[in-house]
Amino acid sequence: QVQLLESGGGLVQPGASLTLSCAASGNTVTFARSAMAWFRQAPGKEREYVASIRFNGNVVDYADSVRPRFIISRDNAKNKLWLQMDSLTPRDTAVYYCAMATDRLWELTWEGDYDVWGQGTQVTVSS
After folding, report:
1. How many Cβ atoms from other residues are within 10 Å of residue 126's Cβ?
2. Residues forming beta bridges with residue 45, ordered by sequence position
3. Which of 40, 44, 96, 120 is the most exposed place for a label (fewest CB within 10 A)?
C-alpha cells in the first residue's frame, strides 16, 4: 500500500504564495503509474477538486477557481507531488489533500476516482 503525507500548509496573508508537498511512501512503485491530484475542503463546504496530473506529469488540469494561480507538478523519482499556489486569497482557505488514483494513468477530476488520500494540511489565508 501507499501512504501519502502532505506538508507545507500554514497561515499566510492575501497575495502571498505557498507550496504544498505530498510525499508517497510504502509501495511507491505504483506512484509512478498513477494519476495524482489535489483537493481541498473549506469549513462547512464539501471537498472540491483543485488540480490533477497525469502519471508521467505531461498533462495537468485545474479547476477554474485556481487557474492560472496554482501549478501542480510531480517527480516520480522522488515520489513527490507539489502544489505551488500564488496570489492566495481568503477563498483559498481550506484543508488541502493529495490523492492518488492507483494505476489510473490519466488526470482525473472526480474524487471518487481516487483511492488513496493523505491526512490533509491546513492553508489559511488571512490578514
Report:
1. 10
2. none
3. 44
Closest CA relative to residue 38, chosen from 76, 77, 81: 81
All three cell numbers of 67: 487557474
Position 18 pLDDT exceeds 90: yes
47, 28, 106, 88 alpha-carbon torsion, rounded to 10°: 40
At 50 the pLDDT is 98
Structure confidence at residue 28 (pLDDT): 84
Given a cut of 90, is residue 12 above it in pLDDT?
Answer: yes
Write the CA distances from 22 to 56, 72, 82, 84, integer angstroms: 16, 11, 6, 12
10-13 long-range Cβ contacts below 8 angstroms, 24+ apart: 10/122, 10/123, 10/124, 11/124, 11/125, 11/126, 12/88, 12/123, 12/124, 12/125, 13/125, 13/126, 13/127
How does pLDDT run across 35-63, given as a tens digit for each residue? Answer: 999 999 999 999 999 999 999 999 999 99
Q: Biggest alpha carbon distance in the chain?
A: 42
